[in-house]
From TrEMBL:
This is Aminopeptidase. The keyword Cytoplasm does not apply. GO terms for cellular component: cytoplasm; extracellular space; plasma membrane; side of membrane. It comes from Hyalella azteca (Amphipod). Keywords: Aminopeptidase, Cell membrane, Disulfide bond, Glycoprotein, GPI-anchor, Hydrolase, Lipoprotein, Membrane, Metal-binding, Metalloprotease, Protease, Signal, Signal-anchor, Transmembrane, Transmembrane helix, Zinc. It comes from the Eukaryota. The gene is LOC108676266. Its cofactor is Zn(2+).
Length: 950
């Protein structure tokens, strides 16, 4: 699944709130938001709509199905009344095999009414007989179980057929088999139905063994009205009449390969499709509502290309005869990798052919690649249980970069990985409230919590690390072996380590004394990550020590675990700088206190962790930092682009953690005046955004602002305000950063130009194409912030009119930029009101936009506290509420803020359940911010003063 991140501000900002990556100024917020998200496709926490409302824990805590029986095949008949009362009439036949004698059939069911008298169980040998008598049928609501107690035992080695008819419901909560609607250009409202099952919602659509390791084949039959189309995982075989009723038809789909329930999918709609024959053995179709069908051009070109790339990369043909991708008007996550039928929210699949931003472009490419990578890693081979979700998601997140790089080689996305995923998750994983990437989970609500940045971005980062330390050849060959061995089955992380170890041994790329498991267990079973300190002696001996990097070392910590990692070491030095060899030259063991490397040249800089391929930070003695600063200032191009980004990020965070004097990162930031590349700028600005956030409500703000404008104006002048779609991707991204920052810092040239472009548009609303898509977030936001009701109303009417999802998302974000409190208050209320014109899936984005606005933040926080029940009822989940807290609290840095958060947590502890994790993060974050203000605010003000900024 791709996390909801693009037009879901909440998700985005909850990922980043505890980090330094987000500025609170709305413009920057939106832009950074769009950029980061788009480029990296995905981070956000799948906080919304997790389906599980409040957690309920069964007494015995065992919610897994009994292992005595398992499904072999399903035959599923569904008739959804989309244009009626939203009932689903269903019937299911499940062939089950028995491993241990048992007197019951237990399977998952939720929000389904069983027709008890229709339930039958027959031995496959005796289908026409009376069947096995059922003693009693019952539900276990806490476990989502349906249990049929039998008069006689089912026998091992035999197969049985379970039959049940039932009634389900097309809900409006974006999970299970749900309903959605959209408005056609002629104004008519059209309904459709789609499915979203990951992780535990297949049981809402049909009774099933809803665990990823319970793989089976599926024969799906869907009844639809004759003016609609049904699609599913497999191609349609034929259509037959539906009894007497000519308005209805049965569509029959081919038998699937063995697969997990969470990957089953169907959509019934009036959508159109375009077909691409790029790939000779796979029929590839992209679906959208008719008014948006011309926005499928990019997906229908890139999808088949990326699919072919993965066929080559994994060296395994795509095993299905077709691949459909569909853009849904209502969708909870970013996208979902259902085998052969990938579902997307519109912004993750569609691109307006007449104009789109570089970030939308990146996002669409990235999400498509992410989902297609899952077709092998996740669908063909599936995790044994949700505890290994990180492997699925981390892998797809990483492979998305390789896939995007193959279809868009000019974008250099492999370089942007460090800023969009690695440094991003560094900022979360340095908190005490982090969690290990591999966690034991049982309950649905806990499973939903796993769809977070740690699984996605840390997962991707440590897989990237492994790719580099094993080398590309070993990594690829090991993966192919793993996929072949476990295809149509399930595997756990140890199975992957096993295949990679064997390959590494065979290729000689892994030291004899080490296995991949020994190394990787230190990264997956422990939370956090290390910082290594390098100290060079006069005779060239480097002594390395490692410790867990924590943003704040609290003396009260109760964590006594001895954190140590197996760390792949790479380095280069000034006399022959070479950043290309990323295979580990040394292994720093997870034992002992220090590790020594001899023979480094002295009196010149050294740099460790090349291309930031290792998931760790590096600190040096002041002497080496100064040599690196000199290099940056004299000729920064000697250092690779990623190294420059790495030095900025490491130094700022080391300083923030009290491990380095702030003078070092501030000196590093001053070289930026001469920096021309996007990646280092992006890394540095993410860090400077933290300073900016903390300074906003202080006297020192002006000095910081002037300092920032001093380094940004050369960049702004270099890239210019005028956008040119023919510019390289990286230049467009740079301009987006420069314009967003200078406008947010109220640089008059930027503000005046933004306000006047918007005024021109208002004067002539049909001429929208005059405003570049890249600069829209900044221009809209700046003009709305500077304007009044007219500017806001104009944006609102354009929001209502637009047929382009990404444009709508941009406008929605900009509507939160107003500085009129009453406008913002009205906007917040609209966000959580049915029929206001803001879709439920976008409510949290509207909230985050207000929360990210200086003027709106306190309003948003009050609104949230005063309306918790209203909001959670509307969103049908408390988890989403905790994500809103994260948004509102991201810049909290006063003791009063801290008290308010504690009170919120205690007031709602019961409702929050396991969603308190996000609140704890906010609380820790706030307390860190308070300490930061105490420790560094004066120091930085003085530094600015000494450098001429008042
Ligand atoms: C919904 O409509 C269908 C078809 O009209 C009907 O068979 C079914 O009983 C209705 N269900 C409910 C709950 O009203
Ligand atoms: C069903 O059978 C399994 C295996 O024999 C057993 O573990 C489980 O407790 C039974 N469930 C019920 C509700 O009796
Ligand atoms: C079917 O069985 C379940 C479990 O015993 C019961 O709760 C439900 O009321 C029954 N439904 C009907 C229609 O009898
Ligand atoms: C299920 O059991 C039958 C024997 O009844 C056997 O032939 C078949 O291979 C089994 N299927 C699976 C998937 O184990
Ligand atoms: C299909 O026909 C039904 C009536 O049979 C109507 O209610 C519905 O709006 C139509 N759907 C579309 C997409 O035209
Ligand atoms: Zn995914």
């Amino acid at each position: 699944m791709d996390k909801k991140d693009d037009d879901a501000g909440t998700s985005y900002s909850s990922a980043r709130s505890s980090s330094h990556c987000m500025s609170r100024r709305s413009t920057i917020f939106i832009v950074v938001f769009l950029f980061v998200v788009l480029v990296c496709a995905g981070f956000l926490v799948h906080f919304c709509w997790p389906g599980a409302k409040e957690p309920s824990y069964p007494e015995d805590h065992d919610i897994r199905l009994p292992r005595s029986i398992f499904p072999v095949s399903y035959e599923l008949w569904l008739q959804p009344f989309i244009n009626g009362n939203f009932t689903i009439l269903g019937a299911v036949n499940i062939v089950i095999n028995v491993t241990i004698p048992t007197d019951n059939v237990t399977l998952h069911i939720s929000d389904i009414i069983t027709k008890n008298e229709t339930v039958t169980i027959h031995s496959l040998h005796d289908l026409d007989g009376p069947g096995i008598r059922i003693k009693k049928q019952s539900y276990d609501h806490e476990k989502n179980f349906y249990v049929a107690l039998l008069e006689e035992a089912l026998e091992p080695g035999r197969s049985y057929k379970f039959h049940m008819e039932y009634e389900g419901y097309l809900n409006d909560q974006l999970n299970g088999f749900y309903r959605s609607s959209y408005t056609r250009s002629d104004g008519s409202l059209v309904l459709l139905a789609a499915s979203q099952f990951e992780p535990v919602d297949a049981r809402r659509a049909f009774p099933c063994f809803d665990e990823p390791a319970m793989k089976a084949t599926f024969d799906i039959h869907i009844a639809r009205e004759s003016n609609m189309t049904a699609i599913s995982n497999m191609p349609k075989i034929n259509t037959t009449a539906f009894g007497e009723n000519s308005q209805w038809m049965w569509d029959h789909f081919g038998t699937t390969l063995p697969m997990s329930t969470y990957l089953v999918a169907f959509v019934v709609s009036d959508f159109q499709h375009v077909e691409s024959n790029y790939n000779d053995h796979i029929k590839f179709r992209v679906w959208a509502r008719q008014d948006a069908i011309n926005q499928t051009w990019y997906a229908s070109k890139t999808g088949p290309q990326a699919l072919s790339f993965f066929e080559n990369y994994f060296n395994i043909s795509f095993p299905l005869p077709k691949q459909d991708m569909i853009a849904l008007p209502d969708f909870s996550a970013g996208a979902m990798e259902n085998w052969g039928l990938i579902t997307y929210r519109e912004t993750a699949l569609l691109l307006n052919p007449v104009g789109y931003s570089a970030s939308s472009h990146s996002r669409v490419a990235n999400v498509i690649a992410h989902e297609l990578a899952h077709q092998w890693f996740g669908d063909l081979v599936t995790m044994e249980w949700w505890s290994d979700l990180w492997l699925n998601e981390g892998f797809a997140t990483y492979m998305a970069y390789l896939g995007t790089n193959s279809v868009e080689p000019d974008w250099n996305v492999l370089d942007t990985f460090v800023v969009t995923d690695l440094q991003n998750v560094f900022a979360l994983d340095c908190l005490e409230s982090s969690h290990p990437i591999s966690v034991a989970v049982e309950f649905p609500n806990d499973i939903n919590q796993l769809f977070d940045d740690i699984s996605y971005s840390k997962g991707a980062s440590i897989i990237r690390m492994m790719n580099h330390f094993l080398t590309e050849e070993t990594f690829k060959a090991g993966l192919t072996k793993y996929l072949n061995v476990h295809q149509f089955g399930n595997a756990a992380q140890d199975d992957l380590w096993q295949c990679l170890t064997e390959q590494g041994r065979a290729d000689g790329t892994l030291p004899e004394h080490l296995s991949v498991k020994t190394i990787m267990d230190t990264w997956t079973l422990q939370m956090g990550y290390p910082v290594i300190s390098v100290h060079l002696s006069r005779d060239g001996q480097a002594t390395l020590t490692q410790k867990r990097f924590l943003m704040v070392n609290t003396s009260v910590s109760t964590d006594t675990h001895d954190y140590k990692w197996w760390i792949p070491i790479t380095f280069t030095t000034q006399d022959s700088p070479d950043f290309s060899v990323t295979k580990a030259s040394h292994w720093m063991p997870a034992l002992g206190s220090s590790y020594v490397i001899d023979g480094l040249p002295t009196n010149q800089w050294h740099l460790f962790n090349l291309e930031q391929t290792g998931y760790y930070r590096v600190n040096y003695g002041v002497e080496n930092w100064n040599l690196l600063i000199n290099q940056l200032q004299d000729n920064s191009s000697v250092l690779s682009l990623v190294s420059r980004a790495q030095l900025a990020d490491d130094s700022f965070d080391l300083a923030r953690a009290g491990e380095l004097d702030y003078d070092i990162p501030l000196q590093i930031s001053s070289y930026l005046e001469a920096e021309k590349e996007f990646v280092p700028w992006s890394a540095a600005l993410s860090n400077l955004a933290y300073l900016e956030n903390m300074f906003t409500r202080t006297r020192g703000y002006v000095a910081l602002r002037n300092y920032l404008l001093g380094i940004l104006i050369p960049l702004y002048n270099d890239v210019g305000f005028e956008d040119n779609p023919d510019d390289t991707h990286s230049l467009q991204n740079k301009r987006v950063l420069a314009v967003a920052w200078t406008c947010a810092l109220e640089y008059s040239d930027c503000v005046v130009k933004s306000v006047s472009s918007y005024a021109n548009w208002m004067a002539n609303p049909t001429k929208i194409s005059d405003i570049s898509d890249n600069l829209k977030p900044t221009i809209y936001c700046t003009a709305i912030a500077r304007g009044g009701e007219d500017e806001w109303n104009f944006a609102w009417s354009q929001y209502r009119l637009s047929n382009v999802a990404s444009e709508k998302a941009t406008l929605l974000g900009a509507l939160g930029c107003s500085r009129e409190i009453w406008i913002l208050a009205r906007f917040l209320e609209m966000a959580f009101t049915e029929g206001s014109g803001i879709r439920k899936q976008d409510a949290t984005r509207a909230f985050s936009a207000v929360a990210a606005n200086d003027v709106g933040r306190d309003l948003a926080w009050d609104f949230l506290r005063n309306n918790v029940m209203w909001i959670s009822n509307y969103l049908q989940t408390f988890t989403a509420v905790s994500a809103l807290v994260t948004d509102a609290a991201s810049e909290f840095n006063t003791p009063l803020n801290y008290q308010e958060l504690l009170k919120f947590k205690s007031d709602f502890s019961e409702e929050l359940g396991s969603a308190t994790y996000a609140i704890d993060q906010s609380i820790e974050n706030t307390s860190n911010n308070i300490a930061w203000m105490d420790n560094y605010y004066d120091y930085i003000v003085n530094w600015l003063h000494d450098h001429g900024y008042e």
